[in-house]
Amino acid sequence: MLYQNKIIIITAPSGAGKTSITKYLMQTFPQLSFSVSAATRQARGEEKNGVDYYFMSQEEFKHKIQHDEFIEWEMVYEGKYYGTLKSEMHRIWSESKIPVLDIDVQGAIHVKQQFPQTSLTIFIEPPSVAELKKRLQSRGTESEESLMARVNKASYELSFKEQFDEIILNDDLTKACNKAEQIVSNFISI
User: Fold this and answer.
1) What is the C-alpha to C-alpha distance for residues 24 and 45, in angstroms, rounded to an integer?
2) Could you give the dihedral angle defined by the CA atoms of residues 126, 166, 153 and 137, in that order, rounded to the nearest 10 degrees?
3) Is residue 1 domain-resident?
4) I need a labelling partner for 151 at 20 to 30 A (CA). Which of 46, 90, 104, 134 fits?
């Protein structure tokens, strides 16, 4: 089956559970393929180049911006660029699969504007900003300053949720995954 330039975009404030839900969808639907984003940050822990992200220098990233090689890109945090390469989308479409983008809110809006007829946007909503802060603190990866930056950004990002096709409240991960599965199943079958 050919999924003519369909795209599934999953977005959420940091800590809302989009990575967990995305992994669930990837295991559930063999016709999906994870779109690896480009990033200028350093790899964390077990992350691998070309699997988790395409890690690159700021210079390399800016060169790709100048040559229009991204569908979307953002400076998500000061000096930290993230983006979706056009070549990554074409690689997945050439395999007759649907790319799944796990990207930030602004990037998701930007991709939706470019592919309004063939994209599905899903916003994962945390139960509350307080719960989000608790989840981020429990990771143990944030300084107090970066934690507050993420919490402030999350509050801002929540104001855009109505711009997405579907909103999934993640107050129970199993329920959220099941709702995402139903939404994606309907989108694939169109």
Assistant:
1) 21
2) 30
3) no
4) 46
Residue 177 above 90 pLDDT?
A: yes
SS3 118: coil
Residue 151 lies in a domain: yes
Res. 114: pLDDT tops 60: yes
The identity of residue 115, as a single letter, is F
103 alpha carbon, distance to own chain's centre: 2
Are 86 and 71 a contacting pair, CB within 8 Å?
yes
pLDDT at 3: 58
Contact 25, 100 (CB under 8 A): yes
pTM score, two decimals? 0.88
Instruction: Let me know if residue 150 belongs to a domain.
Output: yes
Alpha-carbon span 134 to 79, nearest angstrom: 26
CATH code, 181 = 3.40.50.300
**Residue 2 counted as domain residue:** no
Strand order in the sheet with 98-102: 32-34, 98-102, 7-11, 119-125, 166-169
The residue segments making up the domain with residue 153 are 7-189
